[in-house]
Design goal:
The chain is an alpha+beta fold. Helices cover about 25% and strands about 30% of the residues. Strand 9 and strand 10 form a beta hairpin.
Length: about 240
Amino acid sequence: MNDALQDPEICPLGVDGILVRFARNLNDTANARALAFRDQVEAADIAGVTEVAPSLVSVRIGFDPSATDRNAVTTAILTLLAEPMSGDTPPRRLWRIPACFSPDHAAQLAEAAQLAGCTVDQAIAEITTQQVRVMAIGFAPGQPYLGLLPDHWNIPRQSALTDTLPQGALICAVRQLIIWAAEAPTGWRHIGQTAFRVYLPETKQPFALQPGDVVQFAAVSDTDFATIQRDGTTNGGARCEVLR
């Protein structure tokens, strides 16, 4: 079944918002289209628009009702949707983030790898060789959903909750990787650990990652990870390259 919509849906969302939806369920093409449309709307600088917020397969366009109205914004949206739109918009930034995959820092990696039909070494290789897109930010401040992993990573949730996982934990969930924003319970599996803070409330840009960025994880040893944890100046040893 193809979940992508041939014609995006335009739906009212509250008194000051419009939702443009590109699919009913998550797929890579729809996410790429949503992020490309986000860029189109931002570049168009539509009068009265106050927010352009992408999610996994949709974009919310917020507007100021005192400066414009729904019909005017909808007309502008339809004009943009009629223009040729590439689903291959290049990423804005490339992040390289160290992650530790040893048993002490990845308690459920072996279980997740078995469910995905691969060895632990193969799982680490797949996770670290692929550049994964920041598909959306959500659930907790700055928390990224990264993907998509190959099909065989579409593994089920646990039957019970893990009471808590630490900030920076690397989680596997439905072909996506998530960097945990704060200590919290989860029904997904802990497959690695970073020292990367996705939420930096003390800074001018509190969300470290943005939809459309790409992330590549680099496997590090326990010893190197301990050194990274002690260094509070590099945000977990992450390096960011601006691409556009």
